[in-house]
């Protein structure tokens, strides 16, 4: 188990290294950051001072290693757009807001997606199952940004029940979190439905029924537990996506989180902020995947012994 | 994972007699028709079936409502935007963009992914590790951010958006093909081909690839909808197709300013995306059940 965890940690670090290369060189496609940082026609002495300060000396490769060294310590340099602040502190202001919205989204996803999927499997072929399938299909196919705009149109403009944008009271979080949850609900519903159908057909579930246990207890306890491990990977993906800021949703609802910041920073060519955001988000994804891998290994010995498992 | 594929299973469900009809693998006609009439035919025939210019409007005919509302005319069945451009014409040309971008991105993504997947699965070892590392990397990149940066750096264009989307989907194909190749590699006919002296490229192309073709076709079909959504989202936030091209995502974005007075501007392009992607998903599901039921668990 220790060896398995270690190997996966190394794999995660290698992945982050590759991402840091991509992130660094992509931002440099636009040219030398010194042109954005300093005033025009800077004296060579001032330019040298700035270069020394932000590690912009030497070849690109040397600069990359300077970037990497600072990044490991959480230092991505000053924001170009807000020169008095570091990129990291600009982001730190926004992350709690994305987390707030993301948590609401994750909560809705889990509370709606899982029960719908389980019930659809338990009542396979019924009208309920067909409605659930319809919901899953819709959630997978509807463009998020369009759904957001239409919900604003109906609920905020036509009916006037909720606020349209910004963060003002509890009602402003309702629509964005619903929009964020729709795709995840569809995905979890499908995944849980199919993995529940598998376990419901298995021998030990039949045995539990034969023993005389009530059907609801068999479905929600005996069958759900083993069925939940399959969709776990996907849930991790959804959770990271929601928690690290959904750019599209935050743009439509003018929600000042990390997703909206990414959009603003990219348009303002505020590359330290973009680089920092990219590294933080990827780190979150890699860590989440690592945790899922470890959890799998813990739950299923075949995984940690390196055998192939149909997932 | 019991899908009613083989005959005995269908019989076992015989209690539900009336549903036997659609349980048999009949073609999904309605979704296919929607894909044909909303996506493919408009895309191919755009200049022939439209009378207005998709890019330049008639300024005197700005913000006209659809024909069934007061002030609407048959000249512009779905109304006009604030530059006096016909919404229906732009939708038709938008289909062209969706089809072009999704086809190109999937061809590139599938080619790259399949090649790397075949190589990784067949040779294993160090090559497999390196390719696995690339797959991990691209699947851990925050894609919207990635797209925003690329577009900020080199500017929006068709090539840029196709490159961005291919970069986001090749890993899916690589994973799929690698897995299938691993299982085919151990089969008797591959071993015999090797004994007969076939070269690695020949074995991969003649013996392994045909066996993963079904899964590939299913995956590619399922990805079309994903890619159309991705293109529309990126175009919506300005990191996709450049204006004034009538991408469906751009049309929704532009209509947002006039949402209160002119709802049709954002509404119709969104409906177009929804019905097309929905139909593509239905056809993809059908194809998967038909060609490759074991893929069900992986997607």
UniProtKB/TrEMBL annotation, chain A:
<feature type="transmembrane region" description="Helical">
    <location>
        <begin position="276"/>
        <end position="299"/>
    </location>
</feature>
<keyword id="KW-1133">Transmembrane helix</keyword>
<feature type="transmembrane region" description="Helical">
    <location>
        <begin position="168"/>
        <end position="192"/>
    </location>
</feature>
<keyword id="KW-1003">Cell membrane</keyword>
<feature type="transmembrane region" description="Helical">
    <location>
        <begin position="232"/>
        <end position="256"/>
    </location>
</feature>
<dbReference type="GO" id="GO:0005886">
    <property type="term" value="C:plasma membrane"/>
</dbReference>
<keyword id="KW-0812">Transmembrane</keyword>
<dbReference type="Pfam" id="PF00528">
    <property type="entry name" value="BPD_transp_1"/>
</dbReference>
<feature type="transmembrane region" description="Helical">
    <location>
        <begin position="12"/>
        <end position="31"/>
    </location>
</feature>
<protein>
    <submittedName>
        <fullName>Glutathione ABC transporter permease</fullName>
    </submittedName>
</protein>
<dbReference type="InterPro" id="IPR035906">
    <property type="entry name" value="MetI-like_sf"/>
</dbReference>
<keyword id="KW-0813">Transport</keyword>
<keyword id="KW-0472">Membrane</keyword>
<dbReference type="InterPro" id="IPR000515">
    <property type="entry name" value="MetI-like"/>
</dbReference>
<feature type="domain" description="ABC transmembrane type-1">
    <location>
        <begin position="95"/>
        <end position="292"/>
    </location>
</feature>
<dbReference type="GO" id="GO:0055085">
    <property type="term" value="P:transmembrane transport"/>
</dbReference>
<feature type="transmembrane region" description="Helical">
    <location>
        <begin position="101"/>
        <end position="122"/>
    </location>
</feature>
<feature type="transmembrane region" description="Helical">
    <location>
        <begin position="134"/>
        <end position="156"/>
    </location>
</feature>
<comment type="similarity">
    <text>Belongs to the binding-protein-dependent transport system permease family.</text>
</comment>
UniProtKB/TrEMBL annotation, chain B:
<dbReference type="GO" id="GO:0055085">
    <property type="term" value="P:transmembrane transport"/>
</dbReference>
<keyword id="KW-1003">Cell membrane</keyword>
<keyword id="KW-0472">Membrane</keyword>
<keyword id="KW-0813">Transport</keyword>
<dbReference type="GO" id="GO:0005886">
    <property type="term" value="C:plasma membrane"/>
</dbReference>
<comment type="similarity">
    <text>Belongs to the binding-protein-dependent transport system permease family.</text>
</comment>
<feature type="transmembrane region" description="Helical">
    <location>
        <begin position="261"/>
        <end position="284"/>
    </location>
</feature>
<dbReference type="InterPro" id="IPR050366">
    <property type="entry name" value="BP-dependent_transpt_permease"/>
</dbReference>
<dbReference type="Pfam" id="PF00528">
    <property type="entry name" value="BPD_transp_1"/>
</dbReference>
<dbReference type="InterPro" id="IPR000515">
    <property type="entry name" value="MetI-like"/>
</dbReference>
<feature type="transmembrane region" description="Helical">
    <location>
        <begin position="99"/>
        <end position="123"/>
    </location>
</feature>
<dbReference type="InterPro" id="IPR035906">
    <property type="entry name" value="MetI-like_sf"/>
</dbReference>
<feature type="transmembrane region" description="Helical">
    <location>
        <begin position="29"/>
        <end position="49"/>
    </location>
</feature>
<feature type="domain" description="ABC transmembrane type-1">
    <location>
        <begin position="95"/>
        <end position="284"/>
    </location>
</feature>
<protein>
    <submittedName>
        <fullName>Peptide ABC transporter permease</fullName>
    </submittedName>
</protein>
<keyword id="KW-0812">Transmembrane</keyword>
<feature type="transmembrane region" description="Helical">
    <location>
        <begin position="143"/>
        <end position="173"/>
    </location>
</feature>
<keyword id="KW-1133">Transmembrane helix</keyword>
């Amino acid at each position: 188990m220790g060896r398995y965890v270690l190997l996966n940690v190394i794999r995660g670090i290698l992945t982050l290294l590759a991402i840091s290369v991509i992130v660094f060189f992509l931002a440099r496609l636009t040219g030398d950051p010194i042109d954005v940082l300093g005033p025009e026609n800077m004296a060579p002495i001032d330019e040298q001072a700035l270069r020394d300060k932000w590690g912009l000396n030497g070849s690109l490769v040397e600069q990359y290693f300077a970037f990497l060294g600072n990044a490991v310590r959480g230092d991505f340099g000053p924001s170009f757009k807000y020169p008095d602040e570091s990129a990291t502190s600009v982001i730190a202001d926004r992350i709690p807001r994305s987390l707030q919205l993301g948590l609401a989204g994750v909560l809705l996803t889990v509370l709606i997606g899982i029960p719908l999927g389980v019930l659809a499997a338990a009542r396979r072929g019924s009208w309920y199952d067909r409605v659930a399938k319809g919901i899953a299909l819709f959630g997978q196919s509807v463009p998020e940004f369009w759904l957001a705009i239409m919900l604003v149109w109906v609920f905020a403009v036509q009916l006037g029940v909720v606020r349209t944008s910004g963060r003002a009271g509890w009602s402003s979080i309702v629509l964005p979190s619903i929009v964020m949850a729709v795709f995840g609900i569809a995905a979890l519903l499908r995944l849980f439905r199919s993995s529940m159908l598998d376990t419901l057909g298995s021998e030990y579930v039949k045995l539990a029924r034969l023993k005389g246990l009530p059907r609801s207890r068999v479905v929600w306890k005996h069958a759900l537990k083993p069925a939940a491990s399959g969709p776990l990977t996907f849930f991790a993906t959804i959770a990271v996506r929601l928690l690290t800021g959904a750019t599209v949703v935050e743009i439509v609802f003018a929600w000042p989180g990390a997703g909206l910041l990414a959009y603003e920073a990219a348009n303002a060519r505020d590359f330290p902020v973009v680089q920092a955001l990219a590294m933080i988000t990827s780190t979150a994804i890699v860590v989440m995947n690592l945790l899922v891998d470890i959890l799998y290994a813990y739950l299923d010995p075949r995984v940690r012994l390196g055998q192939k498992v149909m997932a | 994972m019991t899908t009613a594929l083989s005959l005995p299973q269908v019989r076992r469900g015989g209690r539900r007699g009336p549903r036997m009809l659609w349980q048999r693998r009949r073609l999904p006609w309605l979704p296919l028709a929607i894909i044909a009439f909303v996506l493919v035919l408009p895309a191919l025939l755009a200049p022939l079936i439209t009378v207005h210019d998709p890019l330049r409007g008639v300024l005197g005919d700005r913000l006209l409502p659809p024909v069934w509302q007061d002030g609407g005319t048959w000249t512009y069945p779905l109304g006009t935007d604030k530059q006096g451009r016909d919404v229906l014409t732009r939708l038709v040309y938008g289909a062209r963009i969706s089809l072009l971008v999704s086809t190109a991105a999937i061809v590139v993504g599938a080619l790259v992914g399949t090649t790397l997947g075949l190589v990784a699965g067949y040779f294993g070892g160090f090559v497999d590790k390196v390719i696995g590392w690339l797959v991990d990397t691209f699947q851990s990149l925050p894609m919207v951010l990635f797209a925003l940066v690329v577009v900020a750096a080199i500017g929006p264009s068709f090539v840029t958006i196709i490159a961005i989307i291919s970069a986001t989907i090749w890993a899916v194909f690589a994973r799929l093909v690698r897995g299938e190749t691993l299982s085919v590699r151990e089969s008797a006919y591959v071993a015999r081909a090797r004994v007969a002296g076939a070269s690695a490229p020949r074995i991969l192309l003649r013996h392994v690839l045909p066996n993963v073709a079904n899964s590939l076709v299913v995956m590619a079909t399922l990805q079309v909808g994903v890619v159309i959504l991705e293109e529309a989202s990126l175009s919506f936030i300005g990191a996709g197709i450049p204006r004034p091209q009538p991408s469906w995502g751009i049309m929704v974005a532009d209509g947002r300013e006039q949402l209160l007075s002119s709802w049709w501007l954002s509404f119709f392009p969104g409906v177009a995306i929804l019905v097309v992607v929905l139909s593509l998903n239905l056809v993809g599901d059908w194809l998967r059940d038909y060609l490759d039921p074991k893929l069900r668990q992986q997607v």
